[in-house]
Amino acid sequence: MKNLLFLLTFALLIVGCSSPKRLSKVPLTEYDKYTKYGVKERADGFEITVFYSKYQFIPESSVIVAACKSAATAIAYEVAETKGRKIKPINEQRIKVSTGRNGLSGKTSCLAVAIVEWE
Fold this sequence. Notes:
The chain is of the alpha+beta class. The chain has one domain (18-117). It is 30% helix and 33% strand. The protein has 2 helices and 5 strands. The protein has helices spanning 2-15, 61-82, and strands at residues 29-30, 35-42, 45-55, 96-102, 107-117. The protein has a 5-stranded antiparallel sheet, covered by helices on one side. β2 and β3 (45-55) form a beta hairpin. The longest helix is centred in the middle third of the chain and has 22 residues, at 61-82.
């Protein structure tokens, strides 16, 4: 009976795992403890992809999505600054996001992709 309970618990944990859908195939570079990012050049600017993942005891995906969008915006401005260019304001409602949760590790993840245009 204990083995059956263990197997059932393990199966539920595995089923509870999901990862964000990959919205971009750009390689990612570590930004900080929770964040990785990638930049794909475009004629009118660039595309920024951000992967944000953090442990949450109580899953709150809306908090992770907000942090992910904020990181995408902040990193976009940093990238533009290193290139010596200015960008148009980023509309956070146009940032594409995908979320996931790993039931085994307790991590909630978000992948965000935004198109950034030069001024």
